[in-house]
């Protein structure tokens, strides 16, 4: 078990600790329960936008689960230089939803998977391979701001789930909001007022309790379980590949954003140990993003990246064991091979999931704040960078129509809150003299800030 250091949280299980197998399975299920709905939601959103048949949608969902599981295990244990040896749960990201839908509707899914195949490894893989060269550009101030905005801009998504899911006929109904509030309350009470297993499994217990209440209320649809088959066999190149230059450039930019998100998630993860991720950890994590995304595209998998909600679980429960997360990866891979088992998990009502997500994304934002406060002096320079970066990121998140006059490509790029926050923080931190700027060494900084000779 880890011991508390400067800025470190009190961890129940440290990075290399191995909880007993029964507890590891339950803790792994807790990670799966929190991420499975948003991870698979990407496929359903794209299916509506592109017009996929139900069979195609079901296949993509299963491949997403399979490759999310494989990538999670690789992050925990590594294969050569690929993997971070950190408890990073992997899944498909909402960052890519707009581009997948737009490119898929205009050029077809073959163009989507062709762009992912090329840009996944070319961008994130290259950044990971050469991270030592770009590491100075990602200090705690920049990565912390990325973590904060990831958490904050996901809060509306959590609220939508808590209200019953966007587009639901009973959206905002009292039974949805009440169920989400029940899940949230149980998780908080168990975490703050109990010890041992009850605290460690507070989120899973809350989801199970919410599910148990939802069943007699008629809020659970069991039909997907009966309709699902027992085994799903991967089918390589099911949709083929096309290489459209516009699609490749679009996805290349989004993979750059994904790399920033991954560095931010890793920073939020290691912040519980009172430190920032080292170069080897970041390199391995980004290589996993790029390599698995490119390989997954062969099997019709949308880009895979780290899941912020699960970073929040680590902070909330104090369980940082990478072996626990490896168990969750194995469970995800099993679900990906067996649609019947996966269908059981996906019957969780949106309101139940929403109560847990609100807590998790809030913890993600809090982890970002913690990272900044622990490693950054909040002087005038850094406060201005925080103000500008969060102002732009949250501004576009709440008022996306503000840039409707821009060309479509520019709207796609600058309409991403993480892009605006990350790029503004990166540009300002690089250009303005300060101790975290990669362009100004200590001597140059002293020459800027040192008072001149007195005229007296």
UniProtKB/TrEMBL annotation:
<dbReference type="InterPro" id="IPR006042">
    <property type="entry name" value="Xan_ur_permease"/>
</dbReference>
<dbReference type="InterPro" id="IPR006043">
    <property type="entry name" value="NCS2"/>
</dbReference>
<dbReference type="GO" id="GO:0042907">
    <property type="term" value="F:xanthine transmembrane transporter activity"/>
</dbReference>
<comment type="similarity">
    <text>Belongs to the nucleobase:cation symporter-2 (NCS2) (TC 2.A.40) family.</text>
</comment>
<keyword id="KW-0813">Transport</keyword>
<feature type="transmembrane region" description="Helical">
    <location>
        <begin position="175"/>
        <end position="193"/>
    </location>
</feature>
<dbReference type="Pfam" id="PF00860">
    <property type="entry name" value="Xan_ur_permease"/>
</dbReference>
<feature type="transmembrane region" description="Helical">
    <location>
        <begin position="324"/>
        <end position="345"/>
    </location>
</feature>
<keyword id="KW-1133">Transmembrane helix</keyword>
<feature type="transmembrane region" description="Helical">
    <location>
        <begin position="25"/>
        <end position="47"/>
    </location>
</feature>
<keyword id="KW-0472">Membrane</keyword>
<keyword id="KW-0812">Transmembrane</keyword>
<feature type="transmembrane region" description="Helical">
    <location>
        <begin position="239"/>
        <end position="259"/>
    </location>
</feature>
<dbReference type="GO" id="GO:0005886">
    <property type="term" value="C:plasma membrane"/>
</dbReference>
<feature type="transmembrane region" description="Helical">
    <location>
        <begin position="136"/>
        <end position="155"/>
    </location>
</feature>
<keyword id="KW-1003">Cell membrane</keyword>
<protein>
    <submittedName>
        <fullName>Uracil-xanthine permease</fullName>
    </submittedName>
</protein>
<feature type="transmembrane region" description="Helical">
    <location>
        <begin position="59"/>
        <end position="79"/>
    </location>
</feature>
<feature type="transmembrane region" description="Helical">
    <location>
        <begin position="351"/>
        <end position="373"/>
    </location>
</feature>
<dbReference type="InterPro" id="IPR017588">
    <property type="entry name" value="UacT-like"/>
</dbReference>
<feature type="transmembrane region" description="Helical">
    <location>
        <begin position="200"/>
        <end position="219"/>
    </location>
</feature>
């Amino acid at each position: 078990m880890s011991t508390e250091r400067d800025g470190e949280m009190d961890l129940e299980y440290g990075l290399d600790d191995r909880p007993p197998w029964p507890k590891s399975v339950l803790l792994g299920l807790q990670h799966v329960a929190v991420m499975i709905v948003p991870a698979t939601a990407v496929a359903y959103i794209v299916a509506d936008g592109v017009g996929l048949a139900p069979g195609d949608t079901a296949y993509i969902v299963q491949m997403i689960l399979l490759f999310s599981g494989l990538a999670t295990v690789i992050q925990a244990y590594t294969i050569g230089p690929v993997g971070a040896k950190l408890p990073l749960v992997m899944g498909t990201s909402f960052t890519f939803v707009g581009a997948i839908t737009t490119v898929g509707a205009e050029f077809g899914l073959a163009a989507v998977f062709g762009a992912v195949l090329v840009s996944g490894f070319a961008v994130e893989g290259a950044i990971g391979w050469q991270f030592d060269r770009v590491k100075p550009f990602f200090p705690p101030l920049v990565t912390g701001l990325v973590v904060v905005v990831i958490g904050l801009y996901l809060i509306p998504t959590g609220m939508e789930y808590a209200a019953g899911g966007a587009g639901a006929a009973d959206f905002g109904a009292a039974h949805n909001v009440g169920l989400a509030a029940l899940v949230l309350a149980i998780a908080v009470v168990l975490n703050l007022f109990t010890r041992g297993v009850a605290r460690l499994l507070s989120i899973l217990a809350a989801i199970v309790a919410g599910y148990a209440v939802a069943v007699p209320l008629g809020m659970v649809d069991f039909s997907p379980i009966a309709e699902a088959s027992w085994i799903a066999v991967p089918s390589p190149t099911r949709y083929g590949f096309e290489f459209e230059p516009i699609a490749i450039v679009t996805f290349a930019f989004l993979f750059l954003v994904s790399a920033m998100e991954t560095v931010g998630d890793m920073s939020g993860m290691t912040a519980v140990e009172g430190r920032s991720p080292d170069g080897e950890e970041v390199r391995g994590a980004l290589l996993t993003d790029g390599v698995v995304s490119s390989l997954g595209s062969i099997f019709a998998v949308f880009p895979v990246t780290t899941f912020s909600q699960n970073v929040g679980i680590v902070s909330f429960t104090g369980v940082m064991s990478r072996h626990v997360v490896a168990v969750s990866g194995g469970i995800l891979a099993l679900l990906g091979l067996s649609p019947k088992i996966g269908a059981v998990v996906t019957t969780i009502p949106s309101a139940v999931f929403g109560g847990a997500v609100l807590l998790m994304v809030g913890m993600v934002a809090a982890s970002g704040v913690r990272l900044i406060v622990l490693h950054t002096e909040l002087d005038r320079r850094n406060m201005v960078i925080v103000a500008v970066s969060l102002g732009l990121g949250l501004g576009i998140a709440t008022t996306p129509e503000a840039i409707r006059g821009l060309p479509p490509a520019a709207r796609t790029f600058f309409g991403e809150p993480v892009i605006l926050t990350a790029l503004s923080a990166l540009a300002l931190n690089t250009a303005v003299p300060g101790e975290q700027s990669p362009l100004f060494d200590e001597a140059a900084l002293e020459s800027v800030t040192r008072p001149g000779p007195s005229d007296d």
